[in-house]
Specification:
The structure is a single chain. With 401 residues, the protein is of the alpha/beta class. It folds into 2 domains: 226 residues, Aldehyde Dehydrogenase, Chain A, domain 1 (3-Layer(aba) Sandwich); 159 residues, Aldehyde Dehydrogenase, Chain A, domain 2 (3-Layer(aba) Sandwich), CATH 3.40.309.10. 35% of the residues lie in helices and 18% in strands. It has 13 helices and 20 strands. The protein has a 6-stranded mixed beta sheet with strand order 15-18-19-14-13-20, with helices on one face. Strands 10-9-8-11-12 form a 5-stranded parallel beta sheet, sandwiched between helices. α10 links the parallel β13 and β14. α3 runs antiparallel to α5 and α3 crosses α7. The longest helix is centred in the N-terminal third of the chain and has 17 residues. The protein is globular, with a radius of gyration of 22 Å.
Amino acid sequence: MTEEQDANKIILPLFRRGQWYESLDCVSVHKTNQTHLSLAPRIMMRDDARWFKKTSGSLFMPIKQERIRILSDAIRIFSNETVEYNGETQGVADFIDRLWEYNGLPDKLTRDWLRIFGEVFESQEWDCITEGQKGEIALVSLPSNTFLCLEACFNILVSGKALWIRPSQREPFSCIRFIASLVQSGWPKEALGFYGTSRSDLSLLVSISDKAILFGGEQLEKEYKDHKNVELKGPGRTCAIIGRNMDRCFSIEWLMEKVAGNAGRFCTCASTILCLDDFEAISGGLANQLDCIPIDSGREDTPFPLTQLWEKEEICQMESWVRSCLQPNDVILTSRPFVIETNEGKAIPAPTLIALGNPLNHPLLGMELPFPFAAIAQVREEDIQELTRNANFIFRIGEGQ
């Protein structure tokens, strides 16, 4: 890095012991910009955990109803107001700009997710949340696909446990904004932590936490499935089932929302579609609709906005993996190339639908990619239980069992 680049470097700080803190150890948020995320050294995380457990006895924690009120204020600030952190100020428009610049999220997606974030909080029931013990630390390790996963922090905060957040290195901005909103609303600062780490140091954070909620893929599931203090939030492997005697147009419209809604980035977006009836018309109609989604829409409001910032190498790797999974009777129904290169030199994955000739034990069954992508198959009712065995979310319309 040149002296000029170093001077322009932006450091996203840690939050530890009630203070923002810039680490000497950093990682680039995106290789094309000068923003870097502070990384916490292992010795620091151990010391901070010991410090909190030692001092938590004297830490004032508001009663439960007051915690709910403060959290409500924090979510209002997060979604609507200006926050301050480490001497910086960030309004909502600045936050929307940041997610567009660094993560390619169109404005509509961010605005929609800010609205949904508040709605999720308002829909919660808090009576069943038990009081945490003094000195307990709960970790939430977040993904990059959507900041709505921050809802995993709600129960921890209402319980009165200390909350430590480990952000994704690709999208740390929403986590910083959330911590800043909590501080601004009056949450006890010493009971909050924001720790960027390498993937290899996640295991240390888990070991010093009393409870950990981890978002991630299959590798993370394999690694932590036997850890008693870990709650895994793995792939959704979401399946949409079209039963018999369904209106064709309604089915296609419903599937478009399930596959392409929220840019295909939610774990509840359908990656597998099973049809009991009218397979040819529904699969063909859905493919045509996916082909009509504008690829290079930028920040414009469209019915199905797509994320616009990708590494071409990453997309090509996804395409190679998908093609390696194809079997002789499979057919790619959408007509556009998997990788679209725009006039501005960007590479964007095109919404893709693949018809599976034989879905049983197919490697694409339940596999999710971070854009509108689905496998569709004609099936018998008696096969559905086996085909959905690993699905964490199942949506169904139409007649059938």
